[in-house]
């Protein structure tokens, strides 16, 4: 939820900065469009996602080729820069902990044909395609910057695109930015609503959220999720006095900490399950232990560099979550005793 909200704020910052539109308007419009698709159901959302994604991938690919063409396809050797191996490993470690969108398909597995086969395949394709495209674009931009000896410390990528390739190219890039905000928030709204539906179905949330519409899915859960998204975006903009980038940093930092906590929980669960048959699951225990250590290290490092307010809110949410879970467990035990 936080990561999807951060996407809205990030896209809003880009559009507001370039088009000189109030960030409140851009953020609320982006979120309103994604909310509309979410309420329409998974089929219209999937059709829009496919169409818009193809356009965005095409734009990013063409943009990379334009940057390479501007250097007359003079390629630089990225391995010529000597960076200590420890710094590279640390960068990979922190990079792997950045919240990503491919995991959001998991809550939607119940609405996928042959999910056991297609969901893992989709995740792998997204990781490979997205990673390769991002690497290609970063390389092309870096190639352009190095070729023309541009000062990378004060580089404004949007202004660079406008000055080098004209307003038409900039318009396509702005479309990609807006579309990214819509698609990302739409994806996370759908994922969050299905998670809320699943928790309601299992008795953790009110049963009203488990109502399922045949065409539009869990409408009540989706509506509540949309309300939460609007609340996060509006509250972050209000508390940051309309400074959308500050709101983006705060919500983005919160999503990083929350993502690391989920990693720690998942790794701990893997260790707990594997410990029952530790002789047969040595590899799972090893992987889980290494991943748990990495996640804890990054969490502590990230918390140390985050604002105290963010850390306090993060810790408060964890404590509140444990308390709520404990209350629900006690209530269930009491209900089972009464039924017996």
Compute the average pLDDT: 85
How many domain modules?
A: 2
N-to-C order of helices and strands: HHHHHHHHHH
What is the first-to-last residue Cα distance? 39 Å
Report the count of strand segments. 0
Strand-pairing-aware structural class: mainly alpha
User: In percent terms, what proportion of residues is strand?
Assistant: under 5%
Main beta-sheet strand count, sense and barrel state: none
Dominant shape: globular
Counted by DSSP, the helix tally is 10
Note poorly predicted spans: none
- Helical residue percent? over 70%
What would you report as the Rg, rounded to the nearest angstrom? Answer: 22 Å
Structure description:
This protein is mainly α and 340 residues long. It has helices at residues 2-19, 23-40, 42-70, 85-96, 115-147, 157-201, 219-239, 244-275, 282-305, 308-339. The two termini are 39 Å apart. The mean pLDDT is 85.
Short overview:
Helix content is about 80%, strand content about 0%.
């Amino acid at each position: 939820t936080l990561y999807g909200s951060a996407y809205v704020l990030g896209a809003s910052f880009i559009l507001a900065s370039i088009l000189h539109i109030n960030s409140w308007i851009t953020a609320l419009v982006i979120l309103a469009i994604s909310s509309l698709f979410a309420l329409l159901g998974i089929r219209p959302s999937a059709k829009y996602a496919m169409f818009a994604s193809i356009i965005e991938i095409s734009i990013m690919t063409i943009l990379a080729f334009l940057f390479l063409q501007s250097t007359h396809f003079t390629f630089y050797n990225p391995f010529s820069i000597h960076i200590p191996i420890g710094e590279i490993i640390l960068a990979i470690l922190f990079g792997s902990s950045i919240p990503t969108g491919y995991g959001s398909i998991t809550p939607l597995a119940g609405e996928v044909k042959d999910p056991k086969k297609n969901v893992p395949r989709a995740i792998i394709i997204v990781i490979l395609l997205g990673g390769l495209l991002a690497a290609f674009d970063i390389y092309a931009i870096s190639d352009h910057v190095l070729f023309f000896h541009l000062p990378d410390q004060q580089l404004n990528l949007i202004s660079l695109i406008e000055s080098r390739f004209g307003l038409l190219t900039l318009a396509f890039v702005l479309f990609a930015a807006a579309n990214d905000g819509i698609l990302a928030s739409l994806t996370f709204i759908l994922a969050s609503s299905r998670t809320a539906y699943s928790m309601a179905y299992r008795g953790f949330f009110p049963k009203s959220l488990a109502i399922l519409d045949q065409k539009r899915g869990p409408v009540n859960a989706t509506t509540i999720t949309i309300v939460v998204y609007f609340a996060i975006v509006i509250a972050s903009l209000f508390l940051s006095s309309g400074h959308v980038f500050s709101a983006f940093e705060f919500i983005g930092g919160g999503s990083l900490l929350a993502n690391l906590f989920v990693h720690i929980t998942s790794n701990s669960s893997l260790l707990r399950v594997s410990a029952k048959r530790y002789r047969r699951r040595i590899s799972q225990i090893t992987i889980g232990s290494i991943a748990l250590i990495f996640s804890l290290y990054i969490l502590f490092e990230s918390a140390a560099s985050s604002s105290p307010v963010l850390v306090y809110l993060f810790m408060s949410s964890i404590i509140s979550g444990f308390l709520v879970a404990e209350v629900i467990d006690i209530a269930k035990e009491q209900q089972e005793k009464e039924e017996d």
